[in-house]
Structure formats: C-alpha cells, structure tokens
Amino acid sequence: MLIFPAIDIKAGECVRLRKGEFSTAEKVSADPLETARAFRAAGARWLHTVDLDAAVSGKPVNSAVFVTLAKESGLQVQLGGGIRSLEDARNYLSQGIARVVFGSAALSDPFTVAAAVHEFGHERVAVGIDAKAGKAASDGWTRVSAVDYIALSRVMEKLGVRYIIFTDIDRDGMLSGPCLERLKKLKKSVSCHIIASGGVSSLGDIAALREAGMFGAICGRSLYSGSLSLNDAVRAAEEPNAENNG
C-alpha cells in the first residue's frame, strides 16, 4: 500500500481543514516545498495535493505552488481541486504533475473524465469521490448531491477510471479513524484501485487499511499533529504480504 502525505493549499498557504469546512482552516506549515522535501526524506514517493481555492471557484488558483512542488520536491505529485476540463488537466500534466484528480466533474461532466482517461491514460487520471453520509459532494464540498458514492464509482469504472480517491467528509481532519465499512463496500463494488482519505490518525489505521486491501492511504492532519510518523507509516504500509502495495 502507498502512503500519500497531503498538502492542501489555500491562499498560497499550507493548511488543514476539519470536515472540509473552510472556516476551520489552520496553517500547518510555513513552506510547502520544504514540507514536501521532508516527506520525501521520510520515505514518501507520492504527494497528494489539493487547491482548496480552486475547488470552490472551479478554476486553478494556486497553480505555481503545485508546479514548483512537482519540479523541485522529488516526489510524484497528485493534484486535485478545480480541475474540471481537459485544458486544466493538460496544462498541469505538461508541467510535471504526475496525476490529476477530477472531483466535481465526475458528477457534472463525466464525459470529460472519460475523455481525460482516453487522452492521458489510466495512470495519470484519478477521480475523487467525497461523500457525506454516503452521498457524493462537489464544489469544494459545499454541495451534497443525492448520488450514492457506490453508484458514482461504478459509473467512473465503466468510463475507464482506474484510481478512485474516497474521502469520508465527516471524518476528514478529525483524526477519528477511516470509515472502514464504506471503504470495504467500495472495494467490493468496483475493480478500481482505492485510495482512502479522511480520519487516518495512527499506525493501527494504516494496518487496518492495508488489511482491507486499499491501494493507498492519504495522511494529512495526523502527520502535522505528530500522531503519526510518516517514516513508520511508510514502513507499515509496505510490510510483506500487504495487498496492492503499488
């Protein structure tokens, strides 16, 4: 299993939210690049990043930060937030971003997601499905649809999506543990690689996600708060016999 340390950017600063609420934004790092380099030194190979401003506005806002991370951190950068067109995806991928994440577009414009997979390939496109009480949300989690997360995941699978990042909004940033029940249900429902996000707080959570067959786990607040050591998490995720170790 892969560990994806997370860097979320709002107004150019590295922050963490609680349950996706922008009013809870807390600056957790003075320098995103130095933070990313520290993650690499601790054993990470990938970095999960989100443009929080773009997630709401629907257009790239903090692009320069992410391009710098892709070019100078030594990590493969996975980026979501406000990527809703082929042009957005093409622009980021041409500047060194390793994988783009479509979120709101999965609900509003699934054919763009399908076109992206066709043009850029399975490895460079992921879909982020963020759910509240099992229903998919969009526009920076400000709108909750009536679409069940499993149903949306199955549609994405049919469109050729190989990577799904599932976030349980109620657990995000709360250090309350991942929602294993929903993650296991999702794993059984589609053949996609599942990257779990939200609630990871301890090595026990990493072990549970590995045992559940997750492809990856995104870790944010736990790393900044010190409740989880990235070095230890990477080692635990890559233990022998772990499923889908990437």
Structural features, described:
Helices cover 38% and strands 29% of the residues. The chain is of the alpha/beta class and 246 residues long. It has one domain (2-237): TIM Barrel (Alpha-Beta Barrel). Strands 1-4-5-6-7-10-11-12 form an 8-stranded parallel β-barrel, surrounded by 8 helices. Strand 2 and strand 3 form a beta hairpin. Helix 1 packs parallel to helix 3 (63-72) and helix 9 runs parallel beside helix 11. Residues 242-246 have low confidence and may be disordered.
| Name given to the CATH architecture | Alpha-Beta Barrel
CATH classification class: Alpha Beta
Broad shape: globular
Q: Give the C-alpha Rg.
A: 16 Å
- Overall mean confidence score, pLDDT: 90
Number of helices: 11
**CATH topology description:** TIM Barrel
Distance between the termini: 6 Å
What is the CATH H-level superfamily? Aldolase class I
What is the string of helix and strand elements? EEEHEHHEHEHHEEEHEHEHEHH
Percentage of residues in strands: 25-35%
Count of separate structural domains: 1
Number of strands: 12
Uncertain spans: 242-246
Question: What class, by secondary structure content?
Answer: alpha/beta
> What share of the residues lie within helices?
25-40%
Largest beta-sheet details:
8 strands, parallel, barrel
